[in-house]
Write a structure and sequence with these properties.
The complex is a heterodimer of chains A (about 270) and B (about 170). By secondary structure, chain A is mainly alpha-helical. Chain A is about 55% helix and about 10% strand. Chain B has six helices and six strands; from the N terminus they run ββαβαβαβαβαα. The relative contact order of chain B is 0.19. Classes of the chains: A mainly alpha (about 270), B alpha+beta (about 170).
Amino acid sequence: MKTSEEFASMGAQTGYWSSSARSSFYYKLLKESEQPYRITFETSEQESGSLSNHAGQPVVYMSPDALFVSRIYGWNEMAKRKPASLLQPLISLSNIIVLTPSQSETVDSDEMERRINGVRKELLDACEAAREEHFEDGMESKFSRTITRIFSKLGAEASVALSQIIGSSLTNVEIAGEALRWMSRVDDESTTFAREIVLRECLDNASISIRDGAISGLATMDATGLIPNLKARLEREPNEYIKKRISRILTHLETVKSGKVSSEGTI
Amino acid sequence: MAKYLRKVRSSRWNRSALPARALVDLSTSDDRLSFYRVEDDKSNLDSIIVALAANCDHISNFGYILIPESELQKIGVNLQKTTGQTPFKEVNDKYHYDAVALSADNVLDIASIMKSGGELDEVEESDALDLLTDALGQDLIPFDEVEDSLAKGILKRVLKQQRKAGKAT
């Protein structure tokens, strides 16, 4: 294990976690663990590079002005798997840590954990209250307004919390699907990537309602970066209706990606 | 034979066994259920879709089921021509019907034929946006008749797509 200083220095070389608050945050995560970890940075942008981390494993980093997600992989767990699978997500959603650049300058791990826990409680309360509501496509509800408010305020932390809630089946699938639809509508580019990560994870959920909410959300966000994930889902999707929807959404996303959008602003 | 359209959330209907929550899509008001009559050749389907999209708070995908008129007749559902409540006047006046004096058994029968003999389909958000944008551009629907949140959402989406198109080119 490297010292905190060495770790900070390594981060500084990337131009990424140069601040002491950020490096100490990661160092704490490493130090408190009982086994070595690999840290991987993922980005929805194309501007990424690679370097080796303290464990000699490649890591990917992204531009400093973009939102990032760090994933912490248990190395012993990874070593048991085939090399190809090392590229696949191995961890539970509760291990995803999301920060924005501005937050990471000032927020330490305890504060981040406190925020995520607070948002998770708010979301769970909203989900509980939503059991009394009926949802209709395109129509607001008390629940949708709550989701919009929470994700507008703390979108990155709420993304982590919602992932945990869905991953742990702490709410019913209809409500979870509705949450995915509405958090996708929030107009905050700084948390776009965090929200897309949640949707991407939910593409493989066992519930039709949650998968349906996820693909609806991806369409709402015009998430062209997730076209490969949608194509992969299409290959293994057992529900014919969802397959049809994915095909249509893929066509739309390909159009958006190519720049040939059909809406020319004729209003 | 004409068909009758009922807006639904497709994830409640696109499975082998119908979950109880699908009945949420058949919530009655004064023992009535709202339907839109779709011509044999579906020539008015896009107009009805525009009307339903314009009636939303936000631009969104939505599901619908087309039910053959003969199936509704078989179970004795009484359909009355009434005026719809969407911002699209032509659709309200020409194609809107209410199934009236419904009993709980009627509603269960309707659910059953929607599941077994209905045609489930989805309007994706991008298609709803295109159709609605065209309709607003052609003054088929007055802009001030749609919800503010919907109007803002349409403008935002169009601008966002144009921005993305600009980046791609």
